[in-house]
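Exercise 7.
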Amino acid sequence: MKRVYVKEEACIGCHLCEVYCQLQHARSKDIIKALRKETPHPLPRLRVEEKGVVSFSVRCQQCDEAPCVQACITGALARNPVSSLIEIDPERCIGCWTCLLACPLGAIKQDIEQKKVLKCDLCQGEEIPVCVANCPNEALVYVESQDDSPSLESEVSVPVK
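Solution. The predicted structure, written as tokens, is:
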């Protein structure tokens, strides 16, 4: 399964990955309408963490043994047997946030307005997730993963500087 990895030393904390994620999940697909006029307001399925000069993008890594799926009391989170992605059934989600507490990466987000959870869906329907395709510094890479290893060096054929 392909996953998105971060080259921390290349991330400049521009937050464009968040903006493009919001736009991808907006109804209008127009940046001005989406961010100013759309209701409910589209939310990104990832976040950028920053501490001093270090910044990096955090999103769901579609864990093989996903604690969020095990914690979900309604079964709203489940692994799709075809795509292997962990998906949310918004009809079953009751906004109890137990999956949010169980996620070891803190990658599940609250949609307070809708009382539902959000998480990265790897932009299904797109060849490359929009966060990766629009990262100006190529800090995000989308590569095939063999395991849950968080190490980018073992996944990317191009050396990380």
